[in-house]
Amino acid sequence: MSKITKEQVEHIAHLARLEIKESEVELYTEQLEKIVTLVENLSAVNTEEVKPTYHVLDLVNVFREDVASEGLNREEVLKNAYEQEAGQFKVPTIID
Questions:
Q1: 27 φ/ψ angles, rounded to the nearest 5 degrees
Q2: What is the pLDDT of residues 72-93, one digit of tens each?
Q3: pLDDT (0 to 100) of residue 3
Q4: Centroid of chain to Cα 83
Q5: Is residue 30 one of the residues assigned to a domain?
Q6: Is residue 9 packed enough to be buried (19+ CB in 10 Å), middle (13-18) or exposed (0-12)?
Q7: pTM exceeding the 0.70 threshold for the entire prediction
Q8: Could you report the per-residue pLDDT of 27-50, keeping only the tens digit for each?
Q9: What is the rounded CA–CA span in Å between residue 74 and residue 86?
Q10: Full DSSP string of 47-89
Q11: d(CA 9, CA 35)
Q12: CA 85, 86, 88, 91 torsion-angle sign
């Protein structure tokens, strides 16, 4: 079991740019020690036969098939255009 020191807690707080009071250091030391102990316990669990989980839901493929289809008719698309030129939308020039 690893032992978290007050100096480590103060160093972590410094790296995280957290201002903690001296009275809080002891509390955080205990809490971090519990977290490290929990992770050590989890590391001891045999997970050889467990398949990796990539998503919490059992989804295979949520996307539709990528099938080419007929595009829109150019005349239909441009019929309500304010201005058009050479079969394209004409817009005001914004860069000289």
A1: -60, -45
A2: 999 999 999 999 999 999 998 8
A3: 87
A4: 43
A5: yes
A6: buried
A7: no
A8: 999 999 999 999 999 888 998 998
A9: 11
A10: -TTPPPPS-SS--S--SPP--------HHHHHTT-S-EETTEE
A11: 13
A12: negative
Tokens of 15: 């790296």
Contact 37, 56 (CB under 8 A): no
Compute the C-alpha angle 68/72/74, nearest 5°: 135
Flag whether 48 is in a domain.
no
Look at the chain and report how many structural domains it folds into: 1
User: What residues contact 28, with CB distance under 8 A and at least 6 apart?
Assistant: 9, 13, 20
CB atoms within 10 A of CB 85: 9
Q: Which domain holds residue 28?
A: 6-43
Instruction: Answer yes or no: are the C-beta atoms of 81 and 87 closer than 8 Å.
Output: no
Asked if residue 81 is part of any domain, the answer here is: no
Q: How many CB atoms lie within 10 A of CB 59?
A: 8
CB atoms within 10 A of CB 12: 14
Residue 77 has which token pair?
A: 């698309």
